[in-house]
Design goal:
The chain is of the alpha+beta class and 349 residues long. 43% of the residues lie in helices and 19% in strands. It has a 7-stranded mixed beta sheet. Helix 2 runs antiparallel to helix 4. The protein starts with a helix and ends with a helix. Bound molecules: 3,4-dihydroxyphenylalanine. The site of 3,4-dihydroxyphenylalanine has 11 residues, from strand 9 and strand 10.
Length: 349
């Protein structure tokens, strides 16, 4: 009898395909009403002479069934673990569409891009302090005291005003710093922050960014300036951009010009009688920055002989560059640094 019970239990356990099935047959072969349990309960009814031997045989049968159960359970658990390991595996090489959580600011990225463009041409990136000597921000750039340009630029003076330190109103003082430090020839580009006493409105901010460019060498002409600006514009706005120079006046350049970009929305059509264009105000061109041939007074201020060297310079607003390029209506959007803007611009690619 007991041998049959053991055999029946073995068959049942072996036939259980998984742990649930094994648990289901456990009761029948090892539970309170299983044949071995019943056999054990009946031992008390046997005559004492037979009881010891019967008890031993029941115990052996129980131990065999339990061992068979444990063995099958161990097998099924191992099979389950192997299955889970396989089913829940993660392929770390799969591509993901998850975006990085942070992003650098568009102004940072555009400054890096500009630096790359000029470094690729052999220029250096130069820097100057934001709290700048009034002399470098104005005098050395041929803006004498009491010249209206000092007021026009809404200068912020640091206390005490007699110390002659301003929050630089432009990156142009880096021209003089670079020449004083490096001498000529000199090819530098200087992106940075500038300050003016302007209220924040749609297109103005008291803090904004410019990039200054300066090339001083023997025999440089307006043609070199033109070519450099053309290359710069293409790197920033794409190969189909068109630029033009329009006469203007700046104290530190002579002659001076304004650099315009052909409107990338109407391509000039609005100015030639086409539909009105909001981007260029139907002018056909959008102002980008100022430029010109370095004034001899600036070269002299920096100890460079204007008879031996000539140079050209240019300066653009970076917020304006970004706003134009990406149709950003409010300068505020650039000031606030919302990471969604950077991601939307896709500059970080
Ligand atoms: N510094 C000028 C400004 O802030 C921009 C500028 C004009 C820079 C002409 C230049 C230049 O280097 O040649 O309005």
């Amino acid at each position: 009898m007991l041998d049959q019970d053991v055999a029946a239990a073995r068959t049942a356990f072996a036939g259980a395909a998984d742990l649930d099935a094994l648990a289901a047959v456990h009761v029948a072969h090892l539970g309170n009403r299983s044949p071995v349990a019943l056999a054990r309960r009946e031992l008390g009814a046997l005559p004492p002479a037979a009881r010891a031997d019967a008890g031993r045989r029941v115990n052996v049968a129980l131990a065999e069934i339990t061992a068979a159960y444990d063995e099958r359970r161990a097998e099924l658990e191992a099979a389950r673990d192997a299955h889970v390991l396989h089913a829940e595996r993660v392929d770390g090489t799969l591509p993901t569409d998850r975006r990085p959580r942070g992003a650098r600011h568009p102004l940072t990225l555009v400054q890096e891009r500009i630096a790359d463009v000029f470094v690729a041409m052999g220029w250096e990136v130069a820097e100057g302090p934001e709290a700048e000597a009034e002399w470098l921000n104005f005098d050395a750039l041929n803006v004498p005291s009491h010249h209206p340009a000092r007021e026009e630029q809404d200068t912020l003076w640091l206390d005490p005003p007699s110390a002659g330190v301003v929050l630089r109103t432009q990156t142009s003082p880096v021209q003089v710093r670079s020449l004083l430090e490096r001498g000529a020839p000199c090819y530098v580009v200087a992106p940075g922050r500038v300050y003016r006493n302007d209220p924040l409105d749609a297109t103005h901010s008291p803090v904004f960014h410019q990039v200054e460019g300066l090339a001083v060498d023997r025999g440089l002409t307006m043609g070199d300036l033109r070519g450099t600006l053309e290359l710069f514009a293409r790197a920033m706005f794409g190969d189909d951009v068109r630029t033009r120079l329009r006469p203007d006046h700046f104290p530190f350049t002579e002659p001076s010009a304004e650099v315009d970009l052909l409107c990338w929305v109407c391509h000039g059509a609005s100015a030639a009688g086409g539909d009105p264009c909001r981007t260029c105000g139907s002018e056909g061109w959008v102002e980008w920055g100022g430029c010109g041939m370095v004034h001899p007074v600036v070269l002299t201020s920096a100890g460079i002989d204007p008879l031996e060297f000539t140079g050209y310079a240019f300066g653009m607003g970076l917020e304006r560059t970004l706003m134009s390029r990406h149709n950003i209506a409010e300068i505020r959007d650039l000031v606030e640094g919302d990471v969604r803007l950077t991601l939307a611009l896709g500059l970080e690619a």
